[in-house]
Design a protein that fits this description.
Layout: E1 7-16, E2 19-29, E3 34-38, H1 45-52, E4 60-65, E5 68-70, H2 75-81, E6 83-86, H3 98-102, E7 109-110, E8 113-114, H4 116-129, H5 147-159, E9 165-169, H6 177-192, E10 196-200, H7 204-210, E11 213-218, E12 221-227, H8 233-242, E13 244-245, E14 248-249
Parallel strand pairs: 3-10, 3-11, 6-9, 9-10
Antiparallel strand pairs: 1-2, 1-4, 4-5, 7-8, 11-12, 13-14
Helix pairs in contact: 5-6
Protein name: ABC transporter ATP-binding protein
Keywords: ATP-binding, Nucleotide-binding
InterPro entries: AAA+_ATPase, ABC_carbohydrate_import_ATPase, ABC_transporter-like_ATP-bd, P-loop_NTPase
């Protein structure tokens, strides 16, 4: 495991009007590792990802990428750093084939015409580099693909552009057992190829199957980020539902002793 994160967030705040969705969030994603981002609905996972990808601007905090402070104000800024997001809806066009989908909006041209041979070769090399063998033809329409194959194409599209950090939003949510195994194998392969991977998932079996670290959000706060081997399934569930599990997570706010002071021995809130 790398000791230095590729992406590090410090003190991230994000509000929508009077509602504070993210509060002093710290997060790190490491090259060659899968970091699972977990949390209940409304915990702030999607908002955090949209801040990383440049869709939302942050109210406060710092982004460190590859050891250098950076500013991300738009998806173009994120893409220029090598940050790609595969959203749950995949954003694929059923009426186009695999190559056309992988290069949609970034087509290669030779003069005024599309450079189809180059695009087909690049698509084939990307899929081969990910050891994808379930696609029969690069010219298949996406409408003819299974759910697992569609997810594979969406992931390959994300890594085609010299990506360094890939964020996957619930990649196995609508898949069967065999297709889930196929996609999880691909997720692991991304990390083994040196990419930093962030996996958003509600499925704890998937999380423990492929992740190296687990980061738990609770009501907009990052309550823990630990190595997967150092935490149990039950502890993760407690962090997601209550923000605390044993010594991990939020520290209980102290009661006052009547004059505004905390009683002796009490502690204030924080993240373990």
């Amino acid at each position: 495991m790398s000791a230095t994160p590729l992406l590090e967030l410090r003190g991230i705040d994000k509000s929508f009007g009077p509602v504070q969705v993210l509060r002093d969030v710290a997060f790190a994603a490491y090259p060659g590792e899968v970091t699972a981002l977990v949390g209940d609905n409304g915990a702030g996972k999607s908002t955090l990802v949209k801040c990383i990808s440049g869709i939302y601007s942050t109210d406060a905090g710092q982004f460190i990428f590859d050891g250098q402070p950076v500013s991300i104000h738009s998806p173009r800024d994120a893409a220029s750093l090598g940050i790609e997001v595969v959203y749950q809806d995949l954003a694929l066009c059923d009426n186009l084939d695999i190559v056309q989908n992988m290069f949609l909006g970034r087509e290669k041209r030779r003069g005024i015409v599309l450079d189809e041979p180059t695009m087909e070769q690049m698509a084939a090399e990307t899929l081969a580099g990910l050891s994808v063998r379930t696609v029969k033809s690069l010219r298949q329409h996406v409408s003819s693909l299974s759910g697992g194959q569609r997810q594979t194409v969406a992931i390959a599209k994300a890594v085609l552009w010299n990506s360094r950090l890939v964020i996957l939003d619930e990649p196995t949510a609508a898949l069967g057992v065999a297709q889930t195994a196929q996609v999880l194998e691909l997720v692991r392969r991304l990390a083994d190829n040196g990419l930093a991977v962030v996996l958003i998932s509600h499925n704890m079996n998937d999380v423990f199957a492929v992740s190296d670290r687990i980061a738990a959000l609770y009501l907009g706060q990052m309550v823990a980020q630990v190595k997967t081997t150092d935490i149990t399934h039950a502890q993760v569930v407690e962090l997601i539902t209550a923000g605390r599990s044993g010594e991990l997570g939020l520290v209980t706010e102290p009661a006052t002793n009547g004059n505004g002071a905390a009683p002796a021995g009490s502690t204030t809130g924080g993240v373990s």
